[in-house]
Amino acid sequence: MNLSSDHYELKALARRVRAENGLTSARVLQTDLRRIYFNYGIEIDYWPYPFKTIRGAFMCDDIGTTVMLAQNLPNDPMVFTMAHELKHYLTDRHLKLSYCDQSVFSKAIEIGAEVFASEFLFPDHLFIEYMNRLNVKRNLCTQRTLVDLKLQTRTTLSYAGLAIKAERLHYASPRSLTRLKGWRNLEKLQSKKV
Amino acid sequence: MTVGEHIGHRIRDLRTRYNNDEGISQETLASELNVAANTISRWETGIYIPSVPDLVKLAKFFGIPITSFFPPEEMESENSDVLALLRQAKHLNPDDLEELIKYAEFRKARRIYKGRSRPKAGRKSQKK
User: How far is it, in rounded angstroms, from Cα A110 to Cα A121?
Assistant: First the structure.
């Protein structure tokens, strides 16, 4: 299996789990994921002590199946991390241990978890549907488009995640959005207009 | 000796030996842990067993692993493949690795704790 077919299957898995759990929009909440974790018998621990780079960890052994989440994460990264760790439960249980930090993002298994989480929170087909609705053509998606999209959909996929998706689906040229900063400031300005 | 009594003796021992045997009062320890003043006494006498999150706080305060509150034979009876894997992890930030090991120990302690804890003495049923 090559990388792209692997990712294709992970995206299909993400859509299937969404459907099985009645998720239809781009707004996936912590409560949705807590319910899914509960159904799978995964115990969640919000760890109150700070980590330098770790956002979450998946552990599955004789002790049980648990996901540790860094308690101080803001809402969007928390939801993304929960979706990321869900992929480890679904496909990587045999490894017994996975942790989500910046140093392991290059590992295929972690990239796969990122692909799964992105599709789980905001499926590509839904993103394309919104782009069509906003009449955004190929390579013409701007920072403001994504801010409008986030305000309209109230998606929990972060701006970083939306920017990656827009570039990958060719709504923006490579690195035109992912290198940008100031998303929250622009969001405040746009919110006032709305 | 029950697990609760073992934990109680351990807390008392740590408290009285704190800071090169200078010790720390129950009240001060309670204040540090943000619990009621008489809670420490109840833990030490085994009336209450501290919850696992309380044990995490105690472990942090005394700078010891949470597993050290439990009888060694109890800890040895629980296998944790995850802990073994973590002890081999090399590329993690050392502070994060240490914290992750603490979390893995917390899981293990909780496993031992489950089934060992008992209802708190004197707890009244909630009014409807």
Answer: 17
The pLDDT-based confidence of B1 (bands split at 50, 70, 90) is confident
Strand partners, A64: A61
Q: What is the mean pLDDT of chain A?
A: 93
Mutate to test the interface with A, among B51, B82, B90, B91 (most CBs of A within 10 A): B82
Chain B: residue whose CA lies nearest to A54: B96
Q: How far is A46 from chain B (nearest CA, A)?
A: 10
What lies within 8 Å, CB to CB, of B9 at 6+ separation is B1, B44
Count how many pairs of residues, chain A against chain B, have C-beta atoms within 8 Å. 65
Decide if pLDDT at A1 tops 60.
no
ipTM (interface pTM):
0.88
**B residues 47..86 contacting A (CB < 8 A):** 60, 78-82, 85-86
Placement of tokens 């006032």 in the chain: A192
Closest chain A C-alpha to B96 CA, distance in angstroms: 5
CB contact under 8 A, B80 and A68: no
Q: How far does B21 lie from chain A, in Å, by closest CA?
A: 28
The pTM score is 0.85
In degrees to the nearest 10, what's the CA dihedral of A98, A99, A101, A105? 10
Contacts of A66 in chain B (CB under 8 A): 107
